[in-house]
Every structure is written in structure tokens, then in C-alpha cells.
Amino acid sequence: MSIEVYRDAYGVPHLRAADPAELAFAQGRVTAHDRAWQLEVERHRAQGTTAAFLGAAEAGWDVFVRRARLADTARRCLARLAETDPETAEWVRAYADGVNDGLAEGARRAPEFAATGLVPGRWEAWTPLAVWLSTHILFAGFPTKLWREQVATGLGEEWTELFAADGPATTGSNGWLVAGERTASGAALVAGDPHRFIEAPGVYQQIRLACPAYDVVGLAVPGVPGLAHFGHTGPVAWAITNAMADYQDLYRERLRRTADGGVEAYGPEGWRPAAVHTETVEVSGGEPVLVEVVETGRGPVITGDAPDGPGAEWEGLSLRYVPRVTGRLGFEVLPRLLAARTVGEVDTALDGWVEPVNVVLAADTAGGLLHRVAGHVPVRDRSNSLRPVPAWEPAHAWGPEPAPLPRAEVTDGHAVMANARGIAAPLGVEFAPPHRADRIAELLGASDAWTAEATAAVHRDTDNRAAARLLAAVEAAGGDAAGAGDGSGGLSPAAAGVRKRLLGWDRRMAADSTDAGLFAAVRGAVVRRLAAHEVFAGLREPAPYPELFRPWLYLGPRVGLALETLLVSGPVPAGDVARIVREALEEVGAGEPPAAWGTTHRLAPWQALPDPDDERWPGLAGDHDCVLSTSSAPGYTDRSARASAARYVWDLADRERSGWIVPFGASGVAGDPHHEDQLPLWLRGELAPVTTDWNRLTKEQG
């Protein structure tokens, strides 16, 4: 083999090989060397076997993965890929072979294997597809439909979309493009940051892939070949955000046991046989869990436990998702993106994309610009997008062709994508509030000479536009109508002092700001009181769904995310809202003065093995709706589990003026010099340089 591995000053791998297949092998091998533990956790998550070494806490995920048939769907998608694009199928296989070649060495470096007794397994050619599926199966947020069902039954049909927002477990991103007419160099800039649950090791991997056919830098998903989301080939660069499209459906199924132990489902044509078999989820330190896997004509049944005995009937929910229906995942796009030289080639490649559905920005050195949606959104009745629908009604079937995908021209010299209602609006139901998108557009409009370095400052912006309505309610709490006629609104001196400070606050969620901490304390008190209001009593009952879906179904976090709406509309009377705001001011005024925002708003990354020193994680600036998005659950915890999983600026004038950063480092091995060496830069909102000169890199021996 002709594989060469180089490293930059941050340990980022730069790979050279003779051809794309050999390069895919190299990518798999170096990823296994750097992140063996992460790769094996992801493989087990995709197969539904994590509880076997991580314990009972992971059994719920494993049961869902088995019921949803993720591994079988990955096998199905690979089989179709092998039929329609055998070259790409072999490219994916080469990546898996590379992982297998490097796993043993990588596992020897990772102490987690010894700690759990896990032995590295074998990656199949379909495993990268399964990893992609398990990583993104919740991206469209189908459990939100369960929440809307809860709202309809526990609050009333008219309030079904009351809590519409960028929900507790969805993921978003910022992204923007500045055309050459607005840059100092005359060439475009593409920048942004994906907001995801922060995991350690990180969910993105900085990497460079070079062979005679292409030379690309970008952010890879460990376990998946190529650079699906963010890349810079030199002549062209691209980036994505979550389109917030709705492309998965839940069907209410009527099921019954047959005399021979099989299962039938009631659909538009009446009772029809369903596929059924049993699997076992092994649990470390616990009893194994038997899982009956049932699949109807709509899809796999993911909720509802079947009673025993012939003729027994029950209900469940089936999940219909595009790769399961079509046998396509869009992996044929990945090598085409690497070889792209123009936005036209990026555009053509993305016509084959399936899941998740993304908004894409791209620019090339010839001045070409691209702003479009990519992915597969089924055409069906509007009600499918809102709540679970009856499996037996023909009106809820999917149409034979997907929905047309919107695109837009880049006007005013820039384009912004931040999960708000934009070009993807016809494809979804819930979107992020417009605050991030509007703020980015405002910042970009302030200059006609943007550089990569200056653009990075946009990432750091902490202006909290979402605070405006609560601050207006705080201001109203001191009005004469509130009671006293002296401008205090009947507030105590301490509460009036809190009000005065908030009204003088600059609205920035800086980590060292005690005013930001004060705002968060008042907001939290308002959220808790609103959630406790009697009108929401019907939403406080435990939902009859698996624990896995609870993040979408907790009332408190839902109230926190929908606070802007609930302050001015909804079922809580305006007088009660005003009273709640005054009570929150009194509560905070009577307590200890809140600390600076970063004291409580600390990073809380997910790790497969709990960190024995959780207190070591640093404080953060930003907030959910800031450009510097660092999400928490107001009223319940200030800890932030979701933030920028990477940041990047792609400079089309000179790739070496580009920058990138991940929260931790290039290595997933504790104790490695590059395990967390990027964390200080990430905290400061700085970027590490992209180095492409091979002479400035260090060649790895062996």
C-alpha cells in the first residue's frame, strides 16, 4: 500500500493514498487508531448491543434499535448500493476493512476496553451505514408527535402546536455564506457550527483525505467514510444545517396474535400478516431482555408490548422511515462530494441524498453559490406530520415520489441557515425561533470586507434576543397597574432591585456576567411556576411510552423552550402570567445573589462511561437561542449538554486561511496529548488553523 499518514500540530490526521479505495481504508484505520473505543460504542449502539457491556441503563436504547430494525435496514441499504453503485459499495467496504485493520492496536491504547471487559468486534461493510442510521434516527424528532398527542389529550386539541419550538432533543446548527462581493479577498467564505449533544470523544473528526483524484479537508463522522456534512476541496466548499423537515411517521397499529403464534396487523386492506421474530438483549449485571420484533406494512412497531395467547389484541406504534421503505441512505453521494470541483457538482451529487434532510450552502472559486435543501421527504397528508395516525386509513399512505426540494438565490451578498423557517418551511412543522438567523444576518450586514478571522467572531456572539419577552414582562411587573402606584408595582425592595438590574442588562450571556446569571435565575423561577400551573395538570402524568422518548415528553423543559410563546399567549391567563413573573422576582430577590452565568452553566458532555470527575467541566457562555448556542433546561438545570460540536470557516481564497475546531481534540484516548488540547480554544471561540502544506506536517512512521 502507498498510504501515508501525516499529523498537524493538533494531531489531526492528513492522509495520502494511491486511490479512493485505499484512502477509505486509511481513513478507517486511522480512525480506529485514534478512536477505537468510540467506534466500538457506535457499532454496538447501531446493533442494539450496548447493554451487554454498559449495563441496564442502555437497555432501552438497545430495545428500540432492535424494534426499529436499524441493523437490518443498514444491510438492506448496502445490498441496494451494491446493485446500483458497486464502486461506492466497495469504497464503504474498504473503510470497514481499515477499521478492522486498526482496531486491535487502537483498543490497546484505550483503557475503556479493559475497564468494561469489551473485546473489539468486527466491522461489516454495512456497519458504517448502521452507524449513520443510529446517529440520525432521532434527527427528525418523531417523538415530538407523541408530545403533540399528549398535548391534545391532556390540554386540548386547539393547543396541539402550542409548544412548537426547536425541541428538547432535536439538533440544529448555524451556517452562513458570504459571497465574494462582501469579502476582503473577493472570494467567498462558508462558515458555521453544528449544534449537537456534546459527546466525549467528539461526534466530529477533523481529517484530510488526499489522493490523485482529490484533496479534501473537512469534518467526518467517526465510523463513516468521507465527509458528508462539511468539506473544502480547494475549488469548492460546502456545509449543512438540519432542515427541521418532517420525514418520519408514526402509525397507530391494531395488532392481534394468531393461533400459530404469529401476528396480524389491521391496515387499509384489513387484517394482514406482520413479520415477527424474537431477539435477546443481553444486559451486563442483569437479566436478559426478550424483544418481540414486529413489522407491519407501515414499518417496525416500536411501542406496545404484546399479550400472550391466540386471539389476544393490543395496540402499538409503528415507525415509517425512508431508508427502511426505499433501501436507500444516500451513501453514493459521499465519494462524489469528495471529487466535486464546482457548486454544480456538489448540487448534482446532493440530488441523491436521503437522510437526514439538510439545508446546504456551498461556494466555489469561480463565484458559484448554492443554497438548497437536500434529502428525501415523503409526500403525505398533513396530519401525518402532526401526530400518530391510524394505520388502517388509506389517506395516510405515502405518495410514490418525494416532495420537491426548495432552493434559493443568494441575495445581499450572504445567506444564513439556522434551523428557522426559511427555504425548508414547506417541509416541516416545528422550526427554531428566528433569533440566531436574524442575529447572524445582522452581523454579516455590518461589513463588506469579511475575512476568515473576522468571520470567526460571529461564532462567539452571545446576544440573547430570546430574552426580550421576559424582560418586557419584568418591566411590566413594575407598572402602576401591578398595584402600588409608585412605580414599584408592589414589589419588595429586593425584587425591585432585581427588576432594575435586569432592565439595565446588556442581554449578553457572557460566562462572567452576574446579570446573565440573574436573568437565568428569574427565567428558571418563571418556568417552574408556569409548569406548575393548574392548566397543565393533564401534561404532568407519566406518558405511556418507553423511557427513551421521555426527553421529548417532560413538561418542564417544554415550557422552558416555549417560554416566549407562553408569556404572551396560550392557556395560562395573562393575569396569572403577570403574577408568576412578580413571584419569580420576589423569589430571586429573597435568595442569595445568583452567581455569574458560567458558574452554573457548565459543560455536561455525554460519555459512555461516566466521568469520575464531573466537576472538572468548565463554565460556558451563550444560551439556547444565542449564536453561541449552549442549550440547557431552564428551570431545571443550567448544565449544557448541547452546543457547538465543531466550528469551521472555509476560505475559498486560500484554504490555509480556513479554520476549524472541535470541543476536545483529535484523539479519543485519555492521556494522549491531543485528547483535549482544543478545548481551551473552543471555550474562547477560537479556531485552529487548517494546514495543507505537507512540508509543515509531521509524517507518522510505521
3D architecture notes:
Residues 481-486 have low confidence and may be disordered. With 702 residues, the protein is α+β, with helices and mostly antiparallel strands. Helix 1 (20-47) packs across helix 7 (127-136) and helix 16 (514-531) packs across helix 19. The strands form 3 sheets. A 9-stranded mixed sheet has the order 16-15-8-7-6-5-2-1-24, with helices on one face. The protein is 32% helix and 19% strand.
In round numbers, the mean pLDDT is 95
Instruction: Name the strands of the widest sheet in spatial order.
Output: 16-15-8-7-6-5-2-1-24
The separation of the N and C termini measures: 12 Å
Count of discrete alpha- or pi-helical segments spanning 4 or more residues: 21
Keywords:
single chain, 702 residues, 32% helix, globular
What's the arrangement of secondary structure elements?
Blueprint lengths: L3 E4 L5 E4 L3 H28 L3 H4 L4 H10 L1 H15 L1 H24 L1 H6 L10 H10 L6 H12 L17 E7 L10 E9 L7 E7 L2 E7 L9 E3 L3 E7 L5 E10 L5 E5 L2 E12 L7 E7 L5 E3 L9 E9 H5 L6 H6 L4 H8 L7 E7 L4 E6 L14 E2 L23 E4 L17 H10 L7 H8 L8 H9 L16 H11 L10 H18 L23 H7 L1 H6 L5 H17 L6 H4 L30 E3 L3 E8 L2 E5 L7 E3 L17 H6 L3 E2 L8 E2 L3
Parallel strand pairs: 2-5, 9-17
Antiparallel strand pairs: 1-2, 1-24, 3-4, 3-18, 4-20, 4-21, 5-6, 6-7, 7-8, 8-15, 9-10, 9-14, 10-11, 11-12, 13-14, 15-16, 19-20, 21-22, 22-23
